[in-house]
Specification:
The complex is a heterodimer of chains A (129) and B (215). Chain A contains four helices and five strands, in the order βαββαββαα. Chain A is an alpha+beta fold. The longest helix of chain A is centred in the first third of the chain and has 24 residues. Helix content of chain B is 45%, strand content 20%. The chains are: A alpha+beta (129), B alpha/beta (215).
Chain lengths: 129, 215
């Protein structure tokens, strides 16, 4: 039998949903680099590793310039501060606005007024059909 | 509750500033420099006066003469002496300690008596280098500790130099929590309470705190 960690031992995560206001569109890679660099500068290497901050690639919306960042619940304020401390990416001047903080991706999508994953998948399937 | 950013230092293209502030979720801004007014879209704007005198006596004179003309009077705390003088002056609404100047418990108690809000400016951190940021934030933490201990009024402000210096209320709340304040205190600090008293002053019926002429 495969030994599994019980769900109570899983590390809790919070998801920070943000929107980037900029004068010119910024590609995902540049945005990710700037965010991670800012988190590292603000929190230090130890804080960064403890916060477990990760950008979620699949949920990046290039059109609306909205993205998701996961971190531990304790480090949400520091992650927000790190986002706020970014004012320029390359030549683009930017403002990061945190839309919501949620405990799960599903509730985050509902709170932020986005379509649920199921409806998005159904729509995609409809288009293919 | 309405959310106000008490310190926006931008002096150009205020229409754009108001528009972006509205998008970010602000109900109102206090602008130092430029012509303020309610824009077609976006946040409401109130005109304030920033006093940058080096002499404390001149600062007091200016506060007395200009008090009834502006919605908010702010003093740039360029030195510890100026911070102290501003805390002792009842006409001052907002004190912005600059360049890592200090606010001790005695000053904070005076500020509470005279109802002077101690400002914590996010823009200072935003426009500083990494080395400067550490020292600035360290001093801000000390100031916040004094403010909290003496229960002095405070304000969390953006200190934006342009529309790209503005930050959303949730980010400034996070800044306040990182400084050690509680969420209800921060929400109270961002509400338009400071302006309510000043609007009464500007109405012409105001005599002194608690005394008004009824018509």
């Amino acid at each position: 039998m495969k030994l599994r960690r019980p769900p109570s031992m899983k590390e809790k995560r919070h998801y920070v949903i943000f929107r980037m206001h900029s004068d010119i569109p910024v590609p995902y890679e540049d945005m990710k680099g700037a965010v991670m660099n800012s988190v590292l500068n603000w929190m230090g290497e130890k804080g960064f590793s403890l916060s477990n901050a990760k950008m979620i690639r699949n949920l990046w919306d290039g059109g609306k310039q909205e993205g998701w960042l996961s971190c531990t619940p304790k480090s949400v304020d520091d992650v927000k501060m790190s986002l706020a401390l970014i004012h320029q990416i390359g030549d683009a001047k930017v403002i990061f606005q945190v839309l919501r903080v949620s405990g799960t991706i599903k509730s985050g999508r509902e709170k932020a007024g986005m379509r649920s994953l199921a409806s998005a998948a159904a729509e995609a399937a409809g288009k293919k059909g | 509750m309405k959310l106000w950013d008490y310190c926006v230092l931008a002096d150009s293209d205020l229409g754009e500033v108001a528009k972006i502030a509205g998008k970010l979720g602000w109900d109102g801004l206090c602008v130092f420099g430029g012509e303020a007014g309610t824009g077609k879209a976006g946040a409401e704007m109130v005109r304030g006066l920033m006093i940058e005198e080096k002499n404390s006596e001149q600062m007091r004179k200016k506060v007395r003469s200009e008090r009834k003309k502006f919605g908010i009077i702010a003093v740039m705390g360029t030195s510890d002496d100026m911070n102290r003088a501003a805390c002792e002056t009842s006409g001052v609404d907002l004190l912005l300690p600059r360049g890592g100047t200090r606010i001790d418990v005695v000053m904070a108690k005076l500020a509470r008596e005279k109802n002077v809000r101690i400002g914590f400016e996010f823009g200072q951190l935003l426009h500083s280098t990494l080395e400067e940021r550490g020292a600035l934030f360290s001093q801000m933490l000390k100031n916040a500790k004094s403010v909290k201990k003496s229960r002095a009024p405070f304000a969390i402000v953006s200190g934006a130099l342009s529309e790209f210096g503005l930050r959303a209320p949730s980010e400034l709340m996070a800044f306040g929590r990182v400084l050690g304040f509680d969420s209800p205190e921060i929400r109270d600090a961002m509400s338009g309470k400071a302006l309510e008293e000043n609007r009464k002053r500007l109405s012409g019926r105001w005599i002194m705190p608690g005394v008004e002429v009824e018509k």
